[in-house]
Structures are given as structure tokens and as C-alpha cells.
Amino acid sequence: MTSKSTKIIAVANHKGGCGKTTTVVHLASELADLGTNVLVIDLDPQANASLHIGSRHPSEIEITSAELLVGDLNLISEAIEDETNFKNVSLIYGSLNLGKTEDQLKDDAPRPSEELSNKLELLKGLYDFILIDCPPSLKLLTSNALAASTHVIIPIESGSQYGLYGVTDLTNHLSKIRRVNPELKLLGALLIKHDERQNVCKLIKNEALNQVGELLNTTIPISTKVNQAAILQQSLLRVDKNSKVRKAFQDLAKEIVKRVK
User: Which of 32, 107, 161, 254 is the most buried (most CB within 10 A)?
Assistant: First the structure.
């Protein structure tokens, strides 16, 4: 595999509860099921992706993304945990300490938004996909994720009238980050909890296309299976592989593989 082939995808939206973690977790599982090597980086202080994918509690982990961001390059190999609840998915755990990391980066890093990018250079060619779960803000953690990524997905909660709240701030932020990372491509907005029969969902879909400029063809339906999978710390593949929501994530993984080629 050539070093150019690692695709780094940030899943970003500064609105909380729009399905970022759900997207990262189940996209990782489905990409791995397609036979690719996947690494998940949890940059959210709540560490929900880590609680789902990780076989240990984030508080037990010595080198998390927080230590990695402010530490030396050689910490990268210590930060990666290969033993997870998901087959072929490795993890760099998130941590509550990420809250302090932003201040440390501001104070100490010569280029505060490029620390992650420098560290990930060492992993290019080792993974097919690196997925980054961003926190619900547009501050330095999200900037680091976007500056390090080749692609970005913007999850949007379709059934909610607040689903698009602040999306223009995010697209403006992407333009700023492109000064640092001109290669960053928008894969599109991903509609979560989408129901084509509902008028509010149709309105959000049109408006999302207007504001973001690009939609992923796959949409994710609302399902209790998502919560079930989180409680069981399992993939949808293991919880109910024939469910509608699992098939949607499978379609999403196939669509992403096609789009990034």
C-alpha cells in the first residue's frame, strides 16, 4: 500500500447530539467489515466513541489523544490500542483531559492547529481509513482534526428544526482550515434520523444541500438499535445485521469507499 492511500475522515459538526459519534463508530465497523484497516481517533472530551469501541475505560488509559496532541511524535505508537470490541478497528482513546489540551496547545505549540497532522504523518500507509470523532465545538480540537484530514463528513439531524443550526459557521470554518490544509475535501452532509416521508425531513434535506453544497446519497434512519448497540458496546453488525439502520451504515461505508477513490 502506498503512503498516499490512507484516507483521514473527520466527522464534524459543532452542534451536539447530531450523530457524530454514532457515525464514526458504525462507519468504522462497516469499513472494517469491507476488509479495510481502520483506526478511530476520539477527540471528544466525553469520549463516547472510546466507551463504545474500547475494551477498557478511558480513565484507565495512559496515553490518550490528549497526551498525544501535546506530547512527542513517538507517543503515537503507545497511543494506539489494537484490542477493541470491534474486529479490525484500532482506537486512540479520548479523555476528559482534552478540555485542558486546547489551552496547552494555545500556549505551547508553534502551530496549534497542526499538531495532530504532524503526528499522523507517521501512520500514513498503515491504515486504509482513519476516522476522527470531533467534539461539539469549532475550537482547536476540531481545527486539529480538520487540518489533519483528507475528507470531512458533516452529520445533520434530519428530523429536527435545529438540525442546521450553525452549519454556515462550520462551512466558513472549513474555508479557513483550507488555508492550512488545501487538500481537505467535503464528502457531504449526512442526514441522520432521516425519514423521507416526513415533510420536515424533506425541508431539512433541501436546506442542507443549499447550505453545505453536497449531500451523501445514503441517509441513516431513526432506530432504537443504535442505543442498544451503544449499551452493549457492540457494532450494529453484531446486534442485528439485518436491521434497516445497519444496512444504511453498510451502504454508507460502500459509498465512502467509492467517493474517496
Answer: 32
pTM for this entry: 0.97
- Per 3-state DSSP, the chain is made up of helix, strand and coil in percentages (nearest 5) of 50, 15, 35
CATH code at position 144 = 3.40.50.300
Q: Which domain holds residue 252?
A: 3-260
Strands 38-42 and 80-81: unpaired
Quickly list DSSP for 49-109: HHHHHBSS-GGG-SS-HHHHHHS-TTHHHHHEE--BSSTTEEEE---TTHHHHHHHHHHH-
Q: What is the pLDDT of residues 219-253, one digit of tens each?
A: 999 999 999 999 999 999 999 999 999 999 999 99
* Number of structural domains found in the chain: 1
